[in-house]
Write a structure and sequence with these properties.
With 314 residues, the chain is mostly beta strands. It has a single domain, classed as Porin. It has 2 helices and 17 strands. It has a 14-stranded antiparallel beta barrel. The radius of gyration is 21 Å and the shape is globular. The N terminus is likely disordered.
Length: 314
């Protein structure tokens, strides 16, 4: 009986690290509005130059086993064609589990009017899952569920998306991971074999935003992200950011059922930018955590970067 109980405890440990499974199993960070490749492969190559981004997120500070995420991405056009390419790498550490994703992205962009373009994109790659028993605290070292110190799995996947945009408007639909290995779980332990079994749940994202020039030195950028997972409530982020003097982005987000987010980004040069965001959660986790920190570093480069005359709003 004690053995079964400890297995259930182990399952609970994994589940606790994935409280936000519906919003976090796929890459989802607070500063995604400055790099839509994180959510949509159709964004790859939407600019006339290459864009690279590094991001680090420390979630639920002071909460043991809280998620910690690193993301790196780069994308750009394929020469002077309508094709775009992109590479997306990410790593999540949650509790005793680790997940490392690697995806190649490709997109085709066509004009659908004098000012609008439509990108359609695909991505392919997968996630490498692992967990370490040695990081757990347990009472019965003879329990077979703890017999193996480490377990790993690789789950291949593909994604798709569409992205309609202009210099001052965008909307998109995407399914970053189409293959769903189990629609009800994120990571579990098989109680009969003590085997750790990773699962991938399909996510659906819809995004939209617009840039409104209030004055020569002030641009307002409202945007929204709607997230849907089967058998879970629909969630949404409502964002409002302001660009001041083509130098400073400042604003925030409201994430339904979860948190408020303060966001700032500095456009240090035409190529270099840095960003920071802080999440103020209003769930019960606020009693145990000092919020979430997120840092971003971006660099834009390529053959056409010096010819760009309009600010980079999206």
């Amino acid at each position: 009986m004690r053995s079964i109980y400890k297995k259930l405890v182990l399952v609970a440990v994994f589940s606790a690290g994935l409280i936000h499974a519906s919003a976090q199993q796929d890459i989802l960070v607070s500063q995604y509005m400055f790099n839509h490749l994180l959510l949509n492969p159709a964004y790859a190559g939407s600019k006339d130059y290459m864009m690279s981004t590094l991001l680090y997120r420390k979630q639920w500070v002071n909460f043991d086993g809280a998620p910690e995420t690193q993301v790196g991405s780069i994308h750009g056009p394929v020469g002077l064609t309508n094709f775009g390419w992109g590479v997306l790498l990410s790593h999540d550490h949650i509790g005793v589990t680790d997940r490392t994703d690697a995806y190649l992205n490709g997109a085709y962009h066509l004009r659908v009017g004098s000012r609008l373009r439509l990108g359609v994109g695909l991505r392919a790659g997968g996630g490498y899952y692992s967990y370490n028993n040695s990081d757990l605290k347990y009472w019965d070292s003879g329990d077979p569920v703890f017999a193996s110190d480490n377990a790993t799995r690789f789950l291949p996947n593909v994604g798709a998306g569409a992205y309609l945009y202009s210099n001052k408007f965008y909307c998109g639909l995407s399914v970053p991971t189409i293959i769903s290995y189990d629609p009800t779980k994120s990571l579990s332990v098989d109680l009969t074999t003590a085997e750790v079994v990773p699962h991938q749940v399909r996510h659906y994202f819809a995004t939209a935003g617009v840039a409104l020039e209030l004055s020569p030195d002030v641009v307002m950028k409202p945007s929204v992200l709607v997230k849907y997972v089967d058998h879970a409530p629909v969630e949404a982020d409502f964002n409002l950011n302001f660009l001041l003097a083509n130098f400073l982005w400042v604003g925030g987000s409201y994430r339904t059922g979860d948190s408020f987010v303060a966001i700032t980004e500095f456009q240090l040069t035409r190529k270099l930018r840095i960003g920071y965001s802080y999440d103020f959660t209003f769930t019960d986790i606020k009693n145990y955590s000092a919020g979430s920190h997120e840092f971003m570093l971006g660099y834009d480069f390529g053959y056409d970067i010096m010819k760009v005359k309009t600010p980079r709003y999206f």
